[in-house]
Design goal:
Blueprint (H helix, E strand, L loop, with lengths): L1 E2 L5 H7 L4 E5 L11 E5 L3 E4 L2 E7 L5 E3 L5 E3 L17 H17 L7 H7 L6 H9 L1 H4 L5 E2 L4 E2 L6 E7 L2 E4 L7
């Protein structure tokens, strides 16, 4: 990838930094906190060789959680407990929890989840709904397992997973003077 741009203000409008953010993730993952992020800065070349690592856990095994409940060691796509995602992935589980909390607290989802709103007939957030989400972000921003009297979110790991590790290399581009 190349970025050749003299006016870096356009980049800052998008990423709040001098460059474009690139996220690498599994095709069935919702890009988010677990995604690898790289910044392509102006006047640079960025190479990101990707090294996939396959992770396979034994299926059918269970363990006891902190509440002494018997739970699967890992989830297969057939055992997928997620309402809004067809494939069980760890990041999808936490996004699934966020969506459920947005609906529970604010009654809607923002337009970034348009495909889910359409498929499950969930209202899109108008301005008041977006304000509700912003006001309750501390509760909605689920990034770990939580349990309280109103909500439970426990995300396990998938039985089969692929991690994509990037090895970025950034090279400054030289300005050519063809006059």
């Amino acid at each position: 990838m190349f970025a050749v741009e003299d006016n870096t203000e356009d980049f800052m409008k998008i990423t709040y930094t001098n460059g474009i953010m690139i996220l690498t993730h599994h095709s069935m993952d919702y890009p988010g906190l677990n995604s690898n992020a790289y910044i392509l800065r102006a006047n640079t070349e960025l190479e990101i060789p990707i090294k996939p690592v396959s992770i396979v856990k034994p299926k059918g095994f269970h363990h006891r959680n902190r509440e002494n409940q018997l739970v699967p060691l890992c989830f297969t796509d057939k055992e997928n407990p997620l309402e809004y995602f067809p494939a069980y992935r760890n990041s999808n589980c936490y996004v699934n929890c966020r969506i459920k909390l947005m609906i529970q607290i604010c009654g809607c989802v923002p337009f970034i989840f348009d495909h889910i709103a359409e498929a499950f007939d969930i209202p899109h957030c108008e301005l008041d709904g977006l304000q509700c989400i912003r006001k309750n972000l501390i509760y909605i921003g689920v990034a770990k397992d939580i349990q309280n009297k109103n909500f439970h979110c426990a995300c396990g790991v998938p039985c089969e997973d692929v991690e994509y590790n990037g090895l970025p290399n950034s090279i400054p581009l030289m300005k050519a003077n063809f006059s």
